[in-house]
């Protein structure tokens, strides 16, 4: 893992010449030896053009891809959109930690659970203990899945804030309303790489 992260930090500029990197993190809690990275595309045609360019980029293929492939056990990708009511945010300062929360919602899509889910997110925002970075809804991959990216000053600040939130009547009511649409939830604590625009 250490070797992988060092190579990413050293050579990721070959990849970012082709499209915008939103963020790149490794997991500290919730999963081991795993990385998350988010790339921004204008549309599907843009993504296709980027992938074609990468396939013929000798620096990308020779210096990074060929070196990291033997280190990988598996890969997974999804196409996801920011939900209409959320803009991509930035942390108030560099440093801190990120939390990637994956909610598997019941079939039916946002028409079924969107309003309740948004209310639960807003209730957490309104407590002020955490900063919302983005809410993403899958288009390809496992459907009815929503990823929420939060920023916190430290794991301890996050833990203290969540304990306070669980005693907040607004949060409790909103969560109770939204969990009827929830099938599962998974959280991961993320540390940004040096090369990550979101730090």
UniProtKB/TrEMBL annotation:
The record places domain NIPSNAP at 1-87, 98-197
* One CC-aspect GO term: mitochondrion
Q: Which family does it belong to?
A: Belongs to the NipSnap family.
InterPro entries (alphabetical): Dimeric_a/b-barrel, NIPSNAP, NipSnap_domain
* Signal peptide boundaries: none
The protein's name in its UniProt record: Protein NipSnap homolog 3A
Q: From the record, give the transmembrane residue ranges.
A: none
Task: Set out the biological process GO terms recorded for this chain's protein.
Answer: mitophagy
The UniProt entry, under Pfam families, shows:
NIPSNAP
């Amino acid at each position: 893992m250490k070797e992988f992260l060092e190579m990413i930090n050293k050579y990721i500029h070959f990849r970012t010449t082709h499209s915008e990197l939103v963020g790149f993190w490794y997991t500290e809690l919730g999963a081991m030896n795993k990385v998350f990275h988010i790339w921004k595309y204008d549309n599907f045609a843009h993504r296709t053009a980027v992938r074609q360019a990468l396939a013929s980029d000798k620096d990308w293929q020779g210096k990074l891809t060929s070196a990291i492939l033997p280190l990988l056990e598996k890969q997974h990708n999804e196409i996801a959109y920011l939900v209409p009511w959320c803009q991509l945010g930035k942390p108030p300062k560099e440093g801190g930690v990120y939390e990637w929360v994956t909610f598997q919602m019941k079939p039916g899509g946002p028409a079924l659970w969107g309003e309740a889910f948004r209310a639960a997110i807003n209730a957490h925002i309104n407590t002020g203990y955490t900063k919302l970075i983005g809410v993403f809804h899958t288009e390809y991959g496992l459907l009815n899945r929503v990823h929420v990216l939060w920023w916190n000053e430290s794991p301890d600040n996050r833990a203290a804030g969540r304990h306070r939130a669980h005693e907040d009547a607004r949060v409790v009511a909103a969560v109770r309303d939204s969990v009827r649409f929830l099938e599962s939830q998974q959280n991961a604590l993320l540390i940004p790489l040096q090369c990550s625009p979101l730090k």
